[in-house]
Design goal:
Largest sheet: 8 strands, mixed
Structural class: alpha+beta
Number of helices: 17
Radius of gyration: 34 Å
Distance between the termini: 53 Å
Number of strands: 13
Strand order of the largest sheet: 6-5-4-7-8-11-10-9
Strand content: 15-25%
Amino acid sequence: MSVQIIDKSIGYRVVRSVGSSKNPAEIKQLVAKAWHMIQSCDDKQAPLFSFNTEEEQTIKTFLSELSNAQIHTIGPELIFGTLFDRLGFNTIKEELFRHIVIARLAYPVSKLKTVDYLYRYQGIKIEVDTVYRFLDKLRDKHKETVERVAYEYTKQTLKNISVVFYDMTTLYFETEDEDDLRKIGFSKDGKFQKPQIMLGLLVGQNGYPVGYDIFEGNTFEGHTLLPTIESIQKKYGFTKPIVVADAALLSNKNMKNLANQKYRFILGARIKNESDEIKQEILKRSKSLHDGQSFSVKKSDGTRLIITYSDKRQRKDFHNRERGLKKLRQKVKSGKLTKESINNRGYNKFLILKGEVKLKIDENKVKEDQKWDGLKGYITNTRLSPKKITENYRHLWQIEKAFRISKTDLRIRPIYHYRKKRIEAHICIAFVAYTIYKELERLLHKYRAGFSPKRAGELTHNMYELEYKMLNAIEPEKIILKMDDEQQILYKVIHG
């Protein structure tokens, strides 16, 4: 083996040959001799071997002079900002609106922390009062535009808005003070002592947004259905759709009002609340039902009651009841039943139990209840087949998902604002963020990205851009730093 000193900086030229040998021990000595010769060069002598080329040294110098101010987080703007523009929300020529929406998607935090985010990650310095003043004018100036952009997006995506899904939720405030809008009422969040507002959301298939409305916190949700639907439908002029809602919106008045306004509907039914005659017919006819089968019962008001049976639902109903009965039997056996166990509706503090109270489980009622296992009912005035009615109603979970996304991923609650305009602006921003979220979700599914919109948001946090200036250049240049595999997938999903 030959041991040579090679200078890579001048094209791998052999500078000096130290010697050659086949003996491993001698080769080891030759290598040591070569290293000694390299290291013994003084400053005046040209080095025999260069570890750093001129190019490498230039790069090292460049990197050593980089500062934090030259590296920016570009991910939120690169991903969410692109979708913001693509969907048409950039028709609102307010940079602050854009920044607040993107911050809601990437870092769903309070407005105060949004100001901190804008400064730390975007280099934008604003006062929190500037944000609040903008929120005060957002509703009056831009709410209508925001809603129309979202509606046009859904119309373009679905092609035809023939079925809509409606539901209500409550949004609470971190305060105990009520006003004209914020009222204490029945809370779906379990915050019964907190003032709240009610949010009615209308979506199309797959949860794409159609519109929303806000109501006072103590409004009965059944009174919100028709006003919300009529307002949105008349605003955009689309053909009256089939309205799908759960049993909480079921009332004779709601059905009558919908029918009077020529709306077709599919509502979840409370079949155990029907008349004795109808209940007997349901139990009689359901005995012959198998998994996935159904039948309809015509009601006196002209609607149809659709009854379906599912083995999966039957197992779920049975399991839930047995789980509750197990706990109840244990309490009965222990003799530790309290008034809280007897009445858990929140009014037990007004109860006084006097004398000896003997409790036992009525096993006959348990057997009667089992007869309803696996049965689900829907009330409709459409001519759709039971199968189509069931399929449409099953899409109702999309609106539950919409609320879950808004409350968790987008942190729409709790609300810290107290002025009505700011509360409405907060909901408006969340509505825009939800629309962008749905488009991101659609694209991730279409291109089989393999991760969720929430994960996509996390990936934007460390997508960086480097700003630098070449020698003798007048303007600085920018370059996006290399992304990891998931980030590259996300970028391709958005930018193609």
